[in-house]
Structure formats: structure tokens, C-alpha cells
Write a structure and sequence with these properties.
two-stranded antiparallel sheet, about 0% strand
């Protein structure tokens, strides 16, 4: 006698068989994973080749001299160099000016652009913010050479009103932190404004509307809703800008050549490391400076990560 199993209820797949939708989803997931590994592999190879390996080599050089382990001697020698502490002061002052101006002005401008209700005006503003970031660093400095030279600058009247009669006066050593901050802000802030604008768009419209119904004004909405929700993005911007700011090299190098060394060749730590390596032939001393920059940048970035709760899930 043959016993026939009752038919399965509608929508139920018998045991041992998988729904076609699940099989397709599984295949799609596996395919996406493979493509993800392909895309990540390029970044990983570049990171290892131009990030990890040079860092390890710099660590090796910083603790050796001519292949012999010397402990912290290279660090002590660099620290006692009369050029080292002034270079540290120059870079530290510039980084403070740069980070403070960037964080405050970028966030304010992003909120203002986000608050503009006229669509074409918002799109135009975002495009104009982005344009300076498309210019390479050295080209940006060359452009600013003309802007800062009172003899050819489009704002020469303003420069002369401030008491500057020549490019040499404008780029005096005492003015350089402000000059470099203006150049860096002009070149890099626009891209961050666009990023912050995108982050603001992710804030739920219901939350914004509820705040307005409760009587919150624009400043209260920005302070109590938008700023807290931008914390992670601000932390990310701080980390990336800190890494770029400590690598100050192109700007003082180009200005030094344009002003016949009115800007000293050892103004920044990167310039000093360059002099150690290619003027003095001391690659161990140069590596020691690089390692110190790395340690300081990692330490400050850690503060941004934990204060901004960068890797915590909402």
C-alpha cells in the first residue's frame, strides 16, 4: 500500500528544499562579497605597499644607524637640533588655527547651505564650495602667490590698507600660520562642506519638524539636533585634517622659492626631515622625525575617535 504525503500548505516549502528566492538571494550575497573583496584588495595592496611597509622601514631606520641598533639616539639628536623646536611650534600653531577655523566655519556654512530652501541656490553654492578642492596643492599655492602679492593682487587695496607693500611683508614668518590657514581652508573646506551637507540630509525630517513644532528656532535646532548628529562626521574631518596639517611641506617650500628664502627652508617638520635626508644624508634622523610626527598624529586622532564616538553604533 502506498501512502501519499498530504500536500504542503500554501507558501510552505517541504523540508530539504529551499525557496528559489532564498537561493537567488544567497547567490547574490556571495557575488556581492566576491566583488567587495575585489574592490577592497586594490586599497589593501596600496595600503601595504605605500603605508605599512614604509612605516615599518621608517621605524627600523629611526632606531638604527648604518644598520646598527642605537636605541633612542636618533630621537635625542633630532630633539637637540636647534631647528627642531621652532619647527614644532610653527606646525602646532598652524594646526591649531587650521582645525579651529575648519571645524567652526565648515559646520556653520554647511548648516547655512542646508537651510537654504531655494533648490538652485543650494546646488550652486555646493558646486562653488567644491571647485577649490579640485585644484592640486602646489597649484593652489601658486595661485595664492598672486593673491598675496600687493603689486598684482585683486585685493591689493585691502593688503595695502593693512600695511603690506610687498609679498615679502605678507609672508613674514610671524604671518605664516594665518597665511597657510587661509590657503588650506580655501583649498580643502569646500569638500568638507559638501560632505557635511550630505550628513545633514540624513537627519530625519520628522525630527526637524517636531523640533519646530515645539517652538525651536534655527539656532536651537542647529545646537541641539544638527550638531549632535554631526559629531561623528566632525570627528572624521578632524582626523583627516590633522593628518594633512601635520604634513605641512608644499606651502612653505613653494613660498621659500618664490621669496628667495624669506620663508626658511626648515620652517616645518617635514621640511626639516627633508633636509636631514637629502642635505645631510642622515636618513635615520629623518625617519626619527617622521616617527615622532606619526606618534603625535595617532595620539591626537585617538582623542577625536573617542570624544566623537566615531566607531559606536547609534
Amino acid at each position: 500500500m502506498t501512502v501519499t504525503a498530504p500536500p504542503a500548505p500554501a507558501g510552505v516549502v517541504p523540508s530539504g528544499r529551499r525557496r528559489p528566492e532564498r537561493r537567488r538571494a544567497s547567490r547574490m550575497s556571495a557575488g556581492q562579497s566576491r566583488f567587495g573583496y575585489v574592490f577592497v584588495s586594490g586599497y589593501t595592496l596600496l595600503l601595504v605597499a605605500f603605508g605599512l611597509l614604509p612605516t615599518l622601514y621608517a621605524l627600523f631606520l629611526s632606531f638604527t644607524r648604518n644598520g646598527v641598533f642605537v636605541g633612542f639616539d636618533n630621537f635625542v639628536k633630532v630633539f637637540n637640533d636647534y631647528r627642531f623646536l621652532p619647527a614644532v611650534g610653527h606646525v602646532a600653531l598652524y594646526v591649531v588655527f587650521w582645525l579651529v577655523s575648519l571645524i567652526i566655519l565648515v559646520v556653520v556654512l554647511a548648516i547655512v547651505v542646508h537651510g537654504i530652501r531655494v533648490r538652485w541656490l543650494g546646488d550652486t553654492a555646493r558646486f562653488l564650495f567644491y571647485i577649490p578642492g579640485a585644484i592640486a596643492g602646489a597649484s593652489s599655492v601658486l595661485l595664492w602667490l598672486f593673491v598675496l602679492d600687493p603689486s598684482v593682487s585683486p585685493v591689493s587695496a585691502l593688503l595695502r590698507a593693512m600695511g603690506y607693500e610687498s609679498l615679502v611683508n605678507v609672508v613674514a614668518v610671524g604671518n605664516l600660520p594665518v597665511v597657510f590657514t587661509v590657503i588650506a581652508f580655501w583649498a580643502g573646506a569646500g569638500g568638507w562642506i559638501v560632505i557635511m551637507y550630505g550628513a545633514l540630509n540624513n537627519i530625519s525630517a520628522d525630527i526637524m519638524e517636531a523640533a519646530r513644532i515645539d517652538g525651536a528656532g534655527a539656532l536651537q535646532v542647529a545646537w541641539h539636533i544638527q550638531l549632535p548628529m554631526l559629531t561623528k562626521w566632525i570627528s572624521y574631518m578632524g582626523i583627516m585634517s590633522l593628518a594633512a596639517g601635520t604634513q605641512l611641506f608644499v606651502e612653505p617650500k613653494v613660498l621659500a622659492q618664490a621669496t628667495k628664502n624669506v620663508v626658511p627652508e626648515d620652517y616645518s617638520l617635514n621640511q626639516l626631515a627633508y633636509l636631514y635626508a637629502f642635505r645631510q644624508g642622515d636618513f635615520s634622523g629623518s625617519a626619527a622625525i617622521s616617527v615622532m610626527l606619526l606618534v603625535v598624529a595617532l595620539g591626537l586622532s585617538t582623542i577625536f575617535i573617542f570624544r566623537g564616538k566615531l566607531f559606536e553604533r547609534d
